[in-house]
Amino acid sequence: MSAMRTEDAANGTSTANGGGGVKCEEGGVTVLRPTDLSEMLAAGTKEVHQKAENTEFVKDFLRGRIRKELFKLGHVALYFTYSALEEEIERNKDHPQFAPLFFPHELHRRDALARDLQFFYGSDWQTQISISPATQRYVERIHQIGQDEPALLVAHAYTRYMGDLSGGQVLRKVAQRALKLPASGDGLNFYMFDNVSNAKAFKQLYRSRMNELELQQDTKHKIVEEAVLAFQFNIEIFGEIGEVGKTLEDDVFDAAPVHGEIHGDISQCPYHAAKMAASGGSSYICQIAKTVLKNPSGQVLLAAWIAALAGLAAWYLM
User: Which of 3, 91, 210, 251 is least enclosed, having the fewest CB within 10 Å?
Assistant: First the structure.
């Protein structure tokens, strides 16, 4: 199915651009349609997306200061979330308002997360994990719409899978370095999309398929509202994990200084660099990269900086 879809996209008259919309050739002029679902989702979730990125859990992750216990809890939440999402996707794989987005071979994450949890918790991992209250609310919502309004599954699939494909490899490297995980990738299967050879091309295909769904305009608005709700569920989970973090002893991090620990020269801060990059400071980027790489902790600092930049730009790529 996926190979045929790729061929359709290659032979079609419209393709997806990097900004999230479909480029339609009309008289040799590329026209971006604000009513395309991908455009509506990118615009409609911008504010809540930024709010999610500014939670302490996510900021610490991007800084390379992720605690293993919290990382594990994050994976547990993802396991329950994807189990629910993929159960409902499977249930609705032939529904006309979702079927074109059915890519189980390329996207589904439940089995990958199960392998990660087995690595972290051992062979009896299923007896050691439990669903948290915030994750339970997320899961219940996914099951509700899967049974009552399958079109809204598009919102949850979009926020999860497209987000995972955007900058996921950078996050994997940050986690691998910060948690000292093996180079084999054990514990990081969630971030590995082995059946997606080109993430950018696949996201373009996915957005194109999403824009081709036969949806009424009011349904599109409902999908955007549901995507905002999906981000809010994730924010609740991040906050829940953050509260657990307050009860843990501080870990010793083998990582670069974080934002609040840098004194004097602000150019040492990877988040300042990310902000400059987002505003077009390309020469500044080169200067920071050279400075960072001279430091013994440069590799992880650069990785964290790239992750932060990826986070700032992710919604443009989704």
Answer: 3
Look at residue 266 and tell me whether its pLDDT is greater than 60.
no
As given in the structure block, the two tokens for residue 154 are 């598009």
Token code pair at residue 281: 């400071």
Angle at 303 between CA 300 and CA 309, to 5 degrees: 145
> Which 8-state DSSP code applies to residue 222?
H
Q: Looking at residue 313, what is its pLDDT?
A: 45
Query: In what helix (H) or strand (E) does residue 274 lie, and over which residues does it extend?
Result: helix 270-278
Q: Classify residue 102 by its DSSP letter.
A: -
Place of tokens 């899967």: 146
Gap between the Cα atoms of 256 and 304, Å rounded? 9
Residues 14-31 have pLDDT tens digits of 333 333 333 444 444 434
Structure confidence at residue 274 (pLDDT): 34
57 and 70 Cβ atoms separated by less than 8 Å: yes
Which string of b and e fits 248-264 if b means at least 16 CB within 10 Å?
A: eeeeebebbebeeebee
Cβ neighbourhood burial of 24 (10 Å; 0-12, 13-18, 19+): middle
d(Cα 158, Cα 84) in Å, to the nearest integer?
Answer: 15
Token pair of 269 as six digits? 């801060």
> Could you tell me what percentage of the chain is helix, strand and coil, using 3-state DSSP and rounding each to the nearest 5?
70, 5, 30
Alpha carbons 29 and 295: distance in angstroms, whole number: 48
Q: What is the DSSP letter of 158?
A: I
Tell me the C-alpha distance between 24 and 11, whole Å.
13
